Amino acid sequence: MNLTNFRLETDADGIALATWDMPGRSMNVFTDAVMDELSQVVDAVVADPAIKGCVIVSGKDNFSGGADLTMLQGLGRAYEALKAERGEEEAMRQFFAESRKLSLVFRKLETCGKPFAAAVNGICLGGAFELALACHYRVLSDDPKTRVGLPEIKVGLFPGGGGTQRVARLMQTGDALQMLFKGEQIRPLMARNMGLAQEVAAKDEIVAKAKAWIAAGGSAVAPWDQPKFKAPSGKVYSPAGMMIWPPANAIYRRETHDNYPAAKAILASVYEGLQLPMDQALRVESRYFAHILRTKEAAAMIRTLFLSMGELNKGARRPKGVPATQVGRVGVVGAGFMGAGVAYVTAQAGMEVVLVDQSVEAAEKGKAYAHKLVTDQINKGRAKTADRDALLARIRTSADYADLSACDLVIEAVFEDPAVKAEVIAKVEAVIRPETIFASNTSTLPITGLAKTSARPEQFVGIHFFSPVEKMMLVEIIRGDQTGDAALATALDYVRAIKKTPIVVNDARGFFANRCVGAYLLEGHKMLNEGIPAAMIENAGRQAGMPVGPLSLTDEVAVDLALKIVKATEAQLGADGIDPVQKALLTTLVEGEGRLGRKNRKGFYDYPEGAPKRLWPGLAALQATRIDPDAVDFSELKQRLLVVQALEAARTVGEGVVTDPREADVGSILGFGFAPFTGGALSYIDFMGAQAFVTLAQGLEAKHGPRFAVPQNLLDMAARGGTFYGDAAAKKAA
Fold first, then answer.
1. pLDDT tens, 121-165?
2. Hey, which residues are catalytic here?
């Protein structure tokens, strides 16, 4: 036996310890080599009569993050190559065999005849948790960082190593489906209470606890392999089963609108699998898994939400040759909603914060927001009072700009007015050190223009947070015409330190995200003006894959803010720079009806106290014409809402605002929720095919106007059969 990724030792009591510790990696992951070695470990344990059983543990801080998704990508490439060489039937046979190797290894472990226990500390997700579920006993560490779960759905996959079958036999069916659909990370005590683990113990006791279970004669037969096993919710075809499955199907359709093949596969795998013996059930799961691996949705989501996001989080866009920066103290000017959020996430990351406003009282209000957020965490059992005290101690409030003098980075989050920002820039630069970086948290104003009032434009950068700061994971870093590499690198290092995902964009009005969001909102407003029922517009947005419809999103942004942006754009670009229909609609709502959005409980929706929001009945009166709902092409509405955003994303590439398709795709999903199943705004085009997309857009342009005009860079791409990712790879290779 030649092991590289595992160490196998046997103690004096005859209990083996298999330590998973991949060399050269910070995290254990499943690869072909790991699967082969795990199979060898099982064989060695079975072959040695002196070994009573085996405990599997990690030699790293975390147990494992699951499968290496690049390996799964490789399966797809191998399938296409074999298909071209030997035909589809042979390629599919080989693909199916390779895609279920992990499931077969786990089943081999589970039925080997000797007890296996998993001693889990830290992260144990995906295929790693499926390994733990295949073990006959599970002991979880009570370390605060320990989490278990099956998050595959979040990257367009579903558990293909037996997860759907074992979870559905450990828990009530409804609870199992909810866990599989959500893909959340579960804390140790909750996992034990859910029946996913047998024990929770101190980190330094988990191996001893697992060994003690084996020494006490722990069973080597899984519950579902017992002759009289009954699933927790009983048979699928029973009165109890029929109380579960019709509602489950309805919930699936309501939540996914049939956009996520992996979610449908989970439903089908559990439904069919619970009617079969375990080995046949696992084969059913493997069939669905092989199908899902080959879907464009899985390919798109794996690429964007796993590979690309991981690369950006690790600093893929950081300027080379710039030494790493340690941001220890951050100044935040402006303690309003955005500034308070920035102060909170900065202090939460362990940095010192100086929160400055016009008065200490105003700054204290911003600090109180941090107090509220941590208190909410305490009430949910996710933080302790000591955590709150420590975080608040890191936030110093002030009305004196001189207190910013020792800061490594200063972020202004004041009102979106160039004159106000210019005044703040002058006051800050008068007191900070020469090497201190200054960042503007603007969402609309070009950074190059703001930097003209700076005495050190090379130290000036944009850091655009999204609201609410503590929840939104994306941060746009905007490079102005004179922004230097040191400023860009510092901004990236800071954003990574607060555990958010950065994208780098070149300066332009609206940058990247807000341009695409603006196109989405405008399209919804145009539809309303056309006479399309508001409910149809909103439903089209959600069914297209957006988190909320365009009218609801306008309320969240604030209707009066949307009007201010339109007016500011008109003032700077002239009447041709805005849509008069949109301006008229927003003006009527804000100035005529006093409807400002969610913040004053009335916008496109009404927000009654203690009741769900509902569309404002008065919207119909604002429509000069009304279209019969039966005459509306609903599929076209969905296309319009996605195509208009994708076109804007393509324009940002053509204009050089976005230079890396990874950033456009990650940014579009994290920043404004662009239909995740597509992989992002540019992947939406790539996976459809540039020529097919151009044809679709040109049809919409002929019917609805020049906002659907295809930019020249996309026309050129379609003509040569290119893709955004293909072009980026070719450019990098050159």
1. 999 999 999 999 999 999 999 999 999 999 999 999 999 999 999
2. 464
